[in-house]
Design goal:
single chain, alpha/beta, Rossmann fold, 5-stranded parallel beta sheet, two-stranded antiparallel sheet
Length: 251
């Protein structure tokens, strides 16, 4: 199924779309003289949307999904570093090019540190799910080499999903007998990534980055906001993805 279709389906299942659909359905029922049922459905949608927008909810869900940081000892025996691509900024005006988005750039920064610490070769993976001039892999490689002065040995530019990141990375590394890899991605995305890479045939050393803030919750975190909605949506996206991977035999 094309990435655009699966993303659209996921967008409808996740907030804010799903609670808003409940509100809309409730309004339709109320207009058809099913006032009590329609009002209850609309109220449920409104409450769910309010909850989804609370930073205390979103950040708590994200923190539950995050794996602990990698320990130095876990890198023993690793043969390569694999960095997973993420959202790009297409045609960024100051660079006149496609560049890694903030989260992808944070992954690249951590990968650069690990590459210097371990001396391991780096593979970057990620295609162009929504078009663009430069793939996720190419954009990350450029930043690693030009801004962090870290060489990139392999660039994978065709994958559109995390599962494809894993299978295409294996196609590059397995012929060189490099199957114990340090996988770098966002902490909230690491559980699903680990499932995909283990299913593909890798021995995975998780190296999560881009953690949610560990600051204590403030009063404002109990009030709805766009940041809370984004965190809730990210966590639910990963939970749905993990469930889907497990249904397909990963893990």
């Amino acid at each position: 199924m094309p990435r655009e279709i699966t993303d659209a389906i996921a967008a409808l299942l996740l907030p804010p779309a799903s609670p808003l659909l409940l509100v809309a359905l409730g309004a339709v029922l109320a207009a058809r003289r099913r006032v009590r049922g329609g009002a209850a459905l609309a109220a449920l949608g409104a409450v769910l949307l309010w909850i989804a927008c609370l930073p205390v909810v979103g950040l708590s869900l994200v923190r539950l999904l995050e794996l602990p940081p990698a320990a130095e000892a876990s890198f023993a025996g690793a043969q390569a570093i694999v960095v997973l691509g993420g959202v790009r900024i297409q045609d960024s005006p100051e660079y006149a090019d496609d560049i890694p988005g903030p989260e992808s750039l944070a992954r690249v920064r951590y990968a650069a540190r690990l590459a210097r610490r371990t001396g391991l070769p780096v593979l970057v993976t990620g295609g162009k799910p929504y078009g663009g001039r430069r793939s996720e892999g190419e954009a990350m490689a450029r930043v690693l080499e030009e801004d962090f002065r870290v060489p990139v040995r392999w660039i994978e530019s065709e994958s559109r999903t995390t599962a494809e990141n894993a299978t295409r990375a294996l196609a590059i590394l397995q012929p060189e007998k490099l199957t114990r890899v340090i996988v770098v991605t966002s902490a909230v995305h690491m559980r699903r990534s680990e499932l995909a890479f283990r299913k593909a045939g890798f021995e995975v050393v998780p190296a999560p980055s881009v953690y949610a803030s560990r600051a204590r919750f403030r009063l404002v975190d109990w009030l709805p906001g766009s940041g809370g909605l984004a965190a809730t949506r990210a966590a639910l996206w990963e939970l749905v993805g993990i469930a889907w991977y497990r249904l397909r035999g990963a893990g």
